Amino acid sequence: MATNMLRAAATATGGPDDRRRRGRRGVRANENIAGWLFVAPVIVILGLFLLLPILMALWVSLTDWNGQGSPFTSQVPFVGTDNYTRLFTEDGLDRRDFMTAIRNNIYYVALVVPTQTVLALGLALVVNNRLLKGKSFFRTAFYFPSVTSSVAISVVFLFLFANSGAVNSLLRMFGISGPQWFADSRGVLHLLLGVVGVDSPPTALTQGGPLGLTWWEWLSGPSVAMMSIITLVIWTTSGTFMLMFLAALQNVPVALEEASTLDGASRWQRFRNVTLPMIKPTMFLVVTLGLIGSWQVFDQVYVMSQGDPAKTTLTPAYLSYRTAFRDFDYGSGAAISFVLFLIIIVLTLVQRWVMADRDPDRPRWGRRRRRTPEGSAK
Amino acid sequence: MTALAERPATPTRRRGNRGARTLASRFLGYAVLVFFSLVFLYPFVIQIGNSLKTEPDAAANPLSPIPDQLVFDGFIRIFTGTNFPLWLGNSLLVTLVATTGRVFFCSLAGYALARLRFRGRSGLFAAVIAVMAVPGVVLLIPKFLVLNQLGIYNSYSALIVPLLADAAGVFIMKQFFESIPVSVEEAARIDGASIFRTFWSVVLPMAKPALITLTILSFQGTWNEFPHSLVSVQDPSLFTLPRGLADLVSGSLGKGTQYPLKLGAALLATIPVAIIFVVFQRYFVRDANDGSDKG
């Protein structure tokens, strides 16, 4: 009996034999039923609240449903791909809002991703310094903001960036009078151009531009209000990414760094030519996770600015919510969601593709790790 | 092996040659660490300090952590003038039920995917991986549609049931179950224990670290969950803490900015997660490290 079981287990792991119907039905048949029973709750919940809703929303994005009654009756007007084309090809408020949201999010990504990556790596390098004590305290301190509620933290930052808030009183200590953060829709790039003397936009840039916004509008940069949300997000996410970098840095063999030091490499050269190549996979992971996450910004916008002032903190995620639940245009809202979905899925696929591409490297990593004793690799 | 042996030896050797430089860089290192600790923690200090101030005091000295005059007005009004106790109760209920369910269902599914041989297993696992990539924010409208269609919109079921399973949890548990030796389970099975019995009394007790990790992540996730409550309920008596807080901020308070009150409410909403974070810190850290290992 026991040997039979073991043989069954052995063939089962063997691959193709797996499928072969065994003479003794007992164990296998049991496992077939038990397996499905065990996964059933998860399948039902994810199917019902994830897959089915996506299909339903796909249908709704092709209709003009206004929230009254059920969207799956013949009374609901079917409009084909109108909701999508209005976002891209038809000149109008819908396209203007959508493109404004895309512009805002692009500037948001352009500031958040590089800053949080550099900050996280910098902090990880300092915390990882062998000569410093109290690492675990600093690690905890930097990581703590990441685990708190996005809504609660947004409330704190609303206070920090209030007109008479902490940030402005800090700036006053340096003799700077801070802006009215959440009322200021001026673009940062426009402000910078103002500093060098370009006060009014050149007519060439206001005459036209792609996708319903003028060139001048595309080139606004993030608004002052958006800068406060950007600050908040960098502040909350850097800690998580720091931990990832820290784990990667601890896997860099000390001997390698020592060797390069003996060879006369400067600190910068050592970082550039030894450390950085060793943590490249983590760097890539952090950047892509950052890209994926920063296209999903929603909670902070909802709590802090609701897309205001002058729609400069509108993001596609918030716009889809607002279009559906405030303007009761569920079709357009769902269409915006799917465009956003597509953007994020493309980024995710790029990440998985490049990560999988690195797998041939794996054996080398494995060999190096095996040489280090248990525990020190982690 | 070499790495470990060399670690303590090298710095000593180096210190001889360039003691001054090491000292300077150590000082610089601490300066950077202390500066950033302030950046990351001082907002919380400000939050605590200002929640104990009067409103004019908070507006006049927002940077100072010490109240001019210690007042508990904000906190008293949180409990008497807002629906905070109700939100707290709802949050506790949702978090406890959702976390329990999530840990149980994810372990079941993770175990099946790791150990049981059934038709369609690899396809299911691929589906779990695919589902993990679905970004939460694009599900806002879809979730509302399905809850509406099922007739449970605006109910506790709408708040809780969709949170009962999560693909990442299944993934974590599957990875863990694959890492523990099969021999113990086999012994139990040979002794005639049913599959569920083996899972419940033999495998689960061995999976304690993974269960703790998953419990903490689910607790933190459901306690902080905001967008889901936004599209699943509308009745103020069903608001959870994050939803209630967002409601306070968007002006349901009436006159004035009332920052001490808002900061106090946000503080109270943060405390449970903060306590869990401090107590179970290594489980949080492990999770983030696993993330990088996966890459």
TrEMBL record, chain A:
Entry keyword set: Cell membrane, Membrane, Transmembrane, Transmembrane helix, Transport
Classification via Pfam families: BPD_transp_1
Annotated GO CC locations: plasma membrane
TM helices/strands, residue ranges: 33-60, 106-128, 140-162, 224-249, 278-298, 330-350
Membrane-topology annotation of the record: Multi-pass membrane protein
CDD domains xrefs: TM_PBP2 (cd06261)
SUPFAM superfamilies: MalF N-terminal region-like, MetI-like
Subcellular localization: Cell membrane
Family designation: Belongs to the binding-protein-dependent transport system permease family.
PANTHER family: ABC TRANSPORTER PERMEASE PROTEIN, INNER MEMBRANE ABC TRANSPORTER PERMEASE PROTEIN YCJO
Protein name: Sugar ABC transporter permease
